[in-house]
Amino acid sequence: MAKDRLAEVLERYEAVIGLEIHTELTSLRSKMFCGCPVAFGGEPNTRVCPVCLGMPGALPVPNEAAVEATVLAGLALECEIARFSQFHRKNYFYPDMPKNYQISQYDLPFCKNGHLDVEVGEGASAYVTRVGITRIHLEEDTGKMIHVGGAEGRIAGADYSLVDFNRAGTPLIELVTEPDIRTPEEARRFAQTLRTVFLALGISDCSMEEGSMRVDANVSIRPRGATEFGTKAEVKNMNSFKALHDALAYEIVRQADLLDSGGRVVQETRHWDAAAKRTSGLRSKEEAHDYRYFPEPDMVPFEFTDEWIASVKAKLPELPAARRERYAAELGLPKQDARLIADDVALSRFFEQAVSVAGADRAKPVANWVLGELSAHLNATGLAVEECGILPEMLAELVVLIEDGTISGKQGKDVFAEMAQTGERPGAVVERRGMRQVSDTDAIEAVARRVLDAHPDEVASYRGGKSGLIGWFVGQVMREMRGQANPAVVNDVLRALLDQQDR
Ligand SMILES: [Zn+2]
């Protein structure tokens, strides 16, 4: 769908978007209510036990680390932490849920009333929008259905369905936002920013592809200036940030077309089809009373003390927003660089170690190398920064070699390529290949004099006013010295010689 179509619709209508984000606590060792390991994939139905298979009489024991991770997420997002809370049973029948109920939280979630500030857009049109967080609660994930035959693995038209309970019982936090989001881009940025927070907390790998982070969106539109909400549709099945954006853009235009033609929006759940780039109706949305929530009788309620909450708060790491600020204020990084590095936990760890070796005054060139050659190398190889073989000290050494004039920036790129391939330290590469950049004025002057003597016509032209020839002279000297001279020094020496002889 064309971008300007969405822009045109958003001039007449205001979109009201709220997100519901499920995140598996993949960094935990065991499931929510049993000791089965948490992992992705694997041979179906191998990580199961009577508790997560919902066998009669099996009793759940809550995973304390999961409770702590949920409260940590709440604290990171400025939520109020409940002093009293409990689990509820959410009753519904579906084959991927062996107990026929899900242990979840209802009116007493662990965390509520938080917010996250989200930077949207770039450059002069950038702005910050605050998105309220209604609640964060803890529940168990369901198993996974595999529909065989039919279209796109969907149940409709499938020949048969298989079920894998490996995922059943995985600790899952559900975060619900206030309907504060107004555009597909704000929704995408919210989800991306939330992901950086969760990654910084180390509670999940937040993989949209593997489904450990799943974003559903409620979206409605209303004429600009109206105060009443329109009827909302829930959009599901977006497995990338781009899909979230595109599904919302499609849905906003679809609803506008409906209203423009005198129709009305039906409250329903809609499925995003990434290949066809459209949403289609799935089922009418359940109301809370359909689930017949009641307090989970197999577990006592939680009573968090102030001391316990304080002990969790003490474990909060530096969050990406604070890190961005620090990089800009203390290291003088441009906003965009600061964001790109600070939002990535591993990259920021690498960057900070490199800066600690190279010196804070070289933070900017270090950032350039991290975001330039290093990121390109990681993209090309598909390796994570901690497994790419380049250590922060090695990049720092390279930056120092360039900054102190030992080698040129161009030579630096060759050294980087060699270091990335062999793991050899930059200093060793420079020595072995005899790459030292010549900054010695006497050596350069000797070559410069030869070049000037060999080209009397050009010297005369330069003196006659064609000062642009300086670049040509620099090129000649650089070629004579096989690219190893410091260009800035060559420039200075040539100008001095030409001016001197001019007199
Ligand atoms: Zn189990």
Describe this structure in words.
The chain has 3 domains: 3-311, no CATH class; 320-432, no CATH class; 441-502, Arc Repressor Mutant, subunit A. The protein is 41% helix and 19% strand. It has helices spanning 3-12, 64-76, 184-201, 241-260, 306-313, 320-331, 335-342, 345-358, 363-381, 392-403, 409-422, 426-432, 441-454, 456-463, 470-480, 487-502; strands spanning 13-24, 80-81, 84-85, 88-91, 101-104, 111-120, 127-140, 144-148, 160-164, 171-177, 213-223, 233-238, 269-273, 278-283, 294-295, 302-303. The strands form 4 sheets. The protein has a 9-stranded mixed β-sheet. It has a 3-stranded antiparallel β-sheet with strand order 5-4-15, with no helix packed on it. The chain has a two-stranded antiparallel ribbon with strand order 3-16. Strand 12 (233-238), helix 4 and strand 13 (269-273) form a beta-alpha-beta unit. It is elongated and about 95 Å long. The model has no long low-confidence stretch (mean pLDDT 92). It binds zinc ion (ZN). Zinc ion is lined by residues 31, 34, 36, 48-49, 51-52, 169.
Question: Any descriptors?
Answer:
binds zinc ion; three-stranded antiparallel beta sheet; single chain; 16 helices; Arc Repressor Mutant, subunit A; 503 residues; alpha+beta
